[in-house]
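User: My collaborator and I are trying to settle a disagreement about how two of our proteins should look. Neither of us wants to argue from intuition anymore, so we agreed to look at predicted structures for both before our next call. Could you fold the first one, then the second, and keep them clearly separated?

Assistant: That sounds like a sensible way to settle it. I'll keep them separate. The first protein:
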Amino acid sequence: MSLTTRLVILAGLVGLMFYNASEQQLWAAIIDWQLGWYKLGVPIAWGIILGALVNLLGGRVLLKWLEPITLVAASLTTLGLTGAAAVYGAHQIGGLTLAPLFISSVGVGVYLFAYSYARFAGARGARNEESEDSVDK
């Protein structure tokens, strides 16, 4: 069994802990974190922006960390989605799913950080190869 599969299974099991949370605990988490439906997109947008910005400023520093970052992103996304399904299954209230959905939104944001970093690194590498080819001619 691969490491990715093991992490996803473990995160899914941890996500089921949301099933045992009471309505009061979930509402308290939502209020404490000041969550709303519009805030679910914030980590996703920041992931894209920061991935591009880190690549522009940092160069190729994070290339060796892309695989672990992607594994963490998959785990967070699975944890959040499993938790959201467990909360909805236990309480049948869609608003209570905000806390676990926010965790999964952070996971998607982390994945998009790695994705945008890799895309910009690939574009930079292709541009450097083209400029070396034109200099050689």
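The second protein, kept apart from the first:
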Amino acid sequence: MSVFDMAIELGKQLSNTEEYQKVLATQRAVAMDKDARAAVKEFQQLQQAYHRMQMMGHQLTPENIATLEEAEKKASAHPLVQDYLNAQAVFYEVVNTVNEKIQEGLKGAAAATHDQGGCNCSSNDSGACGGSCSGC
């Protein structure tokens, strides 16, 4: 199985988690509620308009920023949007934990590759050889 196939499988497994299912459910709830949907849409449209302004080289004014912050505050104050944002935050924690595990695997793979070169750098305080192994 290629690393890309494993990534697809990981995505499928993540989509089956309770945390991701909660994101989908709360997202549907926002989409079904007229007021929540309107508040989110207003914020997103404003955000996109200001982004386009910045891309064209225009500086946002303090009034622009205040308007955007107010739209964000209004959208996030809606209980259904709050539920969605909370569900998203919980799911991102899961994804971050998965990323940490991937990093652990990478560090383990790097250490295994390093050990194969005949230098384990056990005398090196940092645990990294640096390439030459002369100081090991």
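Some points you might bring to the call about the second protein. Confidence is low (pLDDT under 50) at residues 121-132. The chain is about 75% helix and 0% strand.
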